[in-house]
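Extended Data, panel c. Modelled sequence:
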Amino acid sequence: MPLSIDALNAASPTEALALLDGVYEHSPWIAERALAARPFRSLQHLKHAMARVVNDASADAQLGLIRAHPELAGKAMTANTLTAESTHEQRKAGLTDCTPEELEKIRQLNAAYGAKFGFPFILAVRGPRGTGLRKQEIIDTFERRLDNHADFERAESLRNIHRIAEIRLNDKFGVTPALGNDVWDWHEQLAVHSDPGFKEKGQLTVTYLTEAHRACATQIAALMREVGFDSVEIDAVGNVVGRYEASVPGARALLTGSHYDTVRNGGKYDGRLGIFVPIACVRELARQGRRLPFGFEVVAFAEEEGQRYKATFLGSGALIGHFDADWLTQKDAQGVTLREAMQHVGLREQDIPAIQRDPARYLGFVEVHIEQGPVLNELDLPLGIVTSINGGVRYVCEVIGMASHAGTTPMDRRRDAAVAVAELMLYAEQRAAQDGDSVATVGMLEVPNGSINVVPGRCRFSLDMRAPTDAQRDAMVADVLARLDAIVQRRGLRQTRELAMQASAAPSAPDWQQRWERAVDALGVPLFRMPSGAGHDAMKLHEVMPQAMLFVRGLNAGISHNPLESSTSDDIELAVQAFQNLLDNLATEPTPATP
């Protein structure tokens, strides 16, 4: 019979310790310390309590936990001395049925990894879906992680141990994240569509109005119809819009959604998670035959990334009346204008003004998004409450000095443009760090016509500076640009700089942020508030209505815009449940009719 939280809370210390036996490999001390946090509010509360015990433990205790784990497909497996849990996990991943070649490869990797790090390679081989990784995925991950820094790899080992423990706890409690599994599967099914040149390489790239992009729109629309939306359409810019009507005629609607386009060779969850999570909520409402006292509108935005055309936030911008007609004459790499691309798929530019929304008809906008960063991953937290979307400024700059002979120009006579930029880069790093949550990046750096034996006479570079508030961002920008002026003057150089982009910060509406907080707290998940360093469609909706966002933890140190971007079905399940809580709580509030 599956274990329950109530039974665990009621058990004696000895009984409770026995109930949690085997969750962390050969390490009962973790359960013993975690049980001091009883009563647990939920299974998720228990998971987090056990993870915190590990993270608060000494470095020696953490290393002992890592070393308590067996090698993958190692001697313990061959000798049948694995724990029952480890045996089950390695069997799920097919490691007990390796070919001689696979077994030899894994054992070579085990030896190399042990020699480099001094502890065994730890991987949650049942994977983010819980059904088991393919052997080639395991080998690829093994090879990739061999290149990690020792400190990072140690932390990654602990994160994988927590994932192993999470799956073992699910087994003990008889819990299957069914909603999370479905949403995880929807991501996999949508990821079959990719642009030519990338699909053949197994890479995910979906750019605006390509065949893959249109196939994604069609598939999302079909899913919306299947799960029970009352109306579904693909609008004049390619947004997929699903509407679940209110129980009360004339009621306002809650707007949500995110984008389904991707960066080149990107991940499966950026944007798309914010589409599929609310779709799952609508499916459950439809299954229950339940209506909310407000409408629920889910929009899969057609274009956010600006990869094919320089038209970032095209889909969400059009929804608030900010479609820029100048975009229509932009050309892609093949010389196809945006206007021609729209005409090719049957979209009419004269229909675009009609899709603008009246903010008075909406309660607000909420968005679920994968974090795209390492913070939640490092804290072992599945969800985060977004306090603000950072405002950003981008410059394209050039410093001009004098190219000269590298051997004959004395160090005190040089007018080295590259060294000047290097000095600025270090300052920008230090200045951003002063604020704690500001960031500054030089992402492009070029010495035109550079040569190994020439002092650089020119250096082109970019500056990207972001902060949670416009005032904080502007103070940092002023300091960095003032330092650039001072460096250039001191070194006898010249400069040019062009403002390439400026976006205002989008702080979360306090009442909507609090709604997310109540929804997450009800799950027994510790609340963690954080700014978003990346831009989101919510930034555009923020211009006309209140907004707030929920972040979901990513795997692989939270990497995004990368094929390694991932999330677990357990974390996705919690995101769906949090969204359901938000809807339920909102349903108890007075919902004003549309003016």
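The first strand starts at residue 231 and ends at 234. This feature is highlighted in the accompanying rendering.
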